[in-house]
Specification:
The complex is a heterodimer of chains A (about 325) and B (about 260). Chain A has about 325 residues and is of the alpha/beta class. Chain A folds into 2 domains: about 180 residues, Rossmann fold (3-Layer(aba) Sandwich); about 120 residues, 3-Layer(aba) Sandwich (Rossmann fold). Helix content of chain A is about 25%, strand content about 25%. Chain A contains 8 helices and 18 strands. The model of chain A has no long low-confidence stretch (mean pLDDT about 95). Helix content of chain B is about 30%, strand content about 30%. Classes of the chains: A alpha/beta (about 325), B alpha/beta (about 260). Chains A and B meet through helix 3, helix 4, strand 7, strand 9 and strand 10 of A and helix 3, helix 4, strand 7, strand 8 and strand 9 of B. The structure holds flavin-adenine dinucleotide (2 copies). One flavin-adenine dinucleotide (FAD) binds next to helix 6, helix 7 and helix 8 of chain A. The site of one flavin-adenine dinucleotide (FAD) has 29 residues of chain A, from helix 6, helix 7 and helix 8.
Chain lengths: ~325, ~260
């Protein structure tokens, strides 16, 4: 019975004893949900030697922490985590389970969907209760021109992976206390899966997330020559080159250059958006930039909804002129 | 080695139109194509076959027109194709999709490796691969940027953004591949023609022995309740005017004033 399920669960993703930032964001979001349904917020913490993280979870808004520790859970692997979380969910019957839409969360949550025979919304950018009191998850659809409310009407728990950085963590209340539930479950490591080593990623340039200036090009950038022009502007401004999804899809730039929901989130001082329409998915990755410049020949492109400076013009005419102007001023 | 590759047909554009009345996708007039990362999965499978022998089988759930992507897959070098097509499969979310694909994998039988794209460009949930692994109770490696098989194990690098994790899983296993893992070969028109002779089979829900409550709309816990346009936010955009040269000067002035040059 649907009504047997109560409680908001946040999967407290941790690696090497460090909580993932999205966990704190999900706790803040859960507080909003709690205002509507009044249900207890439980952070579910799996790992080995991680009990000390419970205080952090209380400080950031968890009413309870459900702790399952085992050597087999020290390092994440899908099947042991699935097994333990399934047993816990079947025992406690939460109505909602939220996971960060991180590589780990997106590896685990689909298996939980199958194990619990319920629904899972992917990469939600918002959560709430609608006018009918139904819990919804918002996802952009169809090229970012529309948003959709996805709902899981009949089955429980209602689950979602939630996009990072869609809300701010609460101010921590140091010394806050809550209910600590310790579960001793028998679980074995996965003999058929092994992490051999972890290396820092090779990057095609400096990390985008740290960049002070970002010059991003979109579908209107048709060839290497056009791209070279953008690279020159980026270099001149001491910035990084980036793009919307089409240039990554067509192989002109590697995926670590993609801004947006399925790419990177950037927060530069200065953000050039060149021949980019400004889809919902794209805006998610750059809307917090300080100064947003849009260059797009179509005046009703949605990028102008958030741009501080706009130039309705063919960028192939404006960018060379701008490069020349900057060079001239620097002489 | 028997490798199953799961291939989805997707719209050939991000610019899909919505029917304002029904809120449904307008499919007429929209061209479709093979999901790009599925071509990477096929390429990975073909390279493994070249090295270790065996066969590569493609599996697609979709409308009858999805045979087009299957012909392309066979033209690239896959050996056999299965299309799961039946009215009751329609309206599937990823739970129902994973159930149906897993039923097909079981019916095909004695597979060693199941390959998926990391995500499909339309639904973009990236849930199907791991969900099929869970349906079959086997291990998975998501986000693979390399793949090798040795002594009954599959070895991959997983691209986690800031880190690369090298992992291995015992066969049979599911692997979902990134777009960067390889450069898919081209299916030439000649090869697509020649591939016409390769075996293609269509299966219905009854052929797969599906529990009808687990497929299509009845088997899908999640649904879309409402679609709407994003709210317009109004920033006061300062528009540059004049010739490109005048615009460039004005822009440089503005950036200089903000100490951004
Ligand atoms: C699930 C999902 C996830 C997605 N995730 C992302 C994501 O992470 N990041 C992302 O970017 N997209 C993402 N997308 C795709 C997104 O919906 C858009 O399709 C994409 O952002 C469009 O890129 P664009 O603005 O470059 O192209 P378009 O929308 O085609 O816009 C090109 C613009 O360039 C302008 N233009 C063309 N030529 C010139 C010229 N010479 N001078 C000036 N202007 C010119 C045109 O007026 C037009 O506005 C996702 C889509 C889905 C379905
Ligand atoms: C805008 C939009 C949002 C959606 N949101 C959700 C959601 O939040 N939750 C949910 O459960 N469902 C959702 N769906 C439904 C989901 O798209 C379908 O269930 C779809 O059949 C599979 O998911 P996917 O397209 O996300 O594929 P992904 O899981 O992203 O695809 C990964 C890989 O799985 C394989 N694959 C996927 N579909 C098939 C197929 N039909 N045949 C063969 N191989 C396949 C391919 O190898 C593919 O590369 C959504 C659909 C749309 C259009």
């Amino acid at each position: 019975m649907k009504s047997d399920y109560k409680g908001i669960w946040v999967f407290a993703e941790q690696e090497n004893g460090k909580l993932h930032q999205t966990v704190l964001e999900l706790l803040a979001k859960s507080k909003e949900l709690q205002k509507h349904n009044g249900e207890k917020i439980t952070a579910v913490l799996l790992g080995a030697d991680v009990a000390a993280l419970a205080d952090t979870l209380f400080a950031y808004g968890a009413d309870a922490v459900l702790l399952a520790e085992s050597e087999a859970l020290r390092e994440y692997s899908a099947r042991p985590y699935q097994k333990v979380l399934t047993e816990l969910a079947e025992k406690y019957k939460p109505s909602i389970i939220l996971y960060g839409a991180t590589p780990l969360g997106r590896d685990l949550a689909p298996r939980m969907m199958v194990a619990l025979d319920t629904g899972l919304t992917a990469d939600a950018i918002d959560l709430g209760f609608d006018e009918d009191g139904v819990f919804y998850q918002t996802t952009p659809g169809y090229g970012g021109k529309i948003l959709a409310h996805i709902v899981i009407l009949e089955r429980r728990p209602q689950m979602a992976t939630v996009h990072p950085q869609i809300c701010e963590p609460l101010e921590p209340v140091n010394g806050a206390k809550g209910e600590l539930l310790v579960e001793n479950l028998a679980v074995e490591g996965d003999a058929e899966y092994e992490v051999l080593e972890t290396l820092p990623a090779e990057k095609s340039g400096e990390s985008l997330t740290e960049a002070k200036v970002v010059v991003a090009g979109g579908r209107g950038v048709k060839n290497e020559d056009d791209l070279t022009m953008l690279r020159e502007l980026a270099e001149l401004l001491g910035g990084q080159i980036a793009s919307s999804r089409p240039l990554v899809d067509n192989g002109m730039l590697p995926h670590d250059r993609q801004i947006g929901q399925s790419g990177t989130t950037v927060t530069p001082q200065l953000m050039f958006n060149i021949a980019i329409s400004g889809s919902v998915q794209y805006q998610l990755g750059m809307q917090k930039a300080k100064c947003i410049v849009a260059i797009n020949q179509s005046e009703d492109a949605p990028i102008y909804d958030i741009a501080h400076i706009g130039a309705v013009v063919d960028y192939k005419k404006l960018i060379p002129a701008l490069i020349a102007e900057i060079k001239a001023r620097r002489q | 080695m028997k490798i199953l590759v799961f291939v989805k047909q997707v719209p050939d554009t991000d610019d899909v139109q919505l029917d304002p009345k029904t809120g449904n996708l307008r499919r007429d007039g929209v061209k479709s194509m093979m999901n790009p990362m599925d071509a990477n999965a096929i390429e990975a499978a073909l390279q493994l076959k070249e090295k270790h022998g065996g066969s590569v089988v493609v599996v697609t759930m979709g409308l009858p027109m999805a045979t087009e992507v299957q012909k392309k897959a066979l033209g690239m070098g896959c050996d056999e194709a299965f299309l799961l097509s039946d009215r009751p499969f329609g309206g599937a979310d990823t739970l129902a999709t994973s159930y149906t694909l897993a039923k097909a994998a079981e019916k095909i039988g004695d597979f060693d490796l199941l390959l998926f794209g990391r995500l499909a460009t339309d639904g973009d949930t990236a849930q199907t691969g791991p969900a099929v692994a869970a349906q079959l109770g086997i291990p998975q490696i998501s986000l693979a940027s390399s793949i090798e098989v040795r002594d009954g194990w599959v070895y991959c690098d997983r691209d986690l953004g800031d880190r690369v994790q090298r992992v291995r899983a015992k066969l049979p296993a599911v692997v979902t591949v990134n777009g960067g893992i390889n450069k898919p070969r081209y299916a030439t028109p000649i090869n697509i023609m020649r591939a016409q002779k390769k075996p293609r089979t269509t299966w219905t829900a009854a052929d797969l022995g599906c529990d009808m409550t687990k497929i299509g709309t009845p088997g899908s816990p999640s649904s879309t309740k409402k679609v709407f346009e994003p709210e317009k936010r109004n920033t006061d955009t300062q528009y540059l005017t004049g010739s490109p040269d005048e615009m460039a000067k004005a822009l440089a002035d503005l950036l200089e004033a903000e100490h951004l040059l």
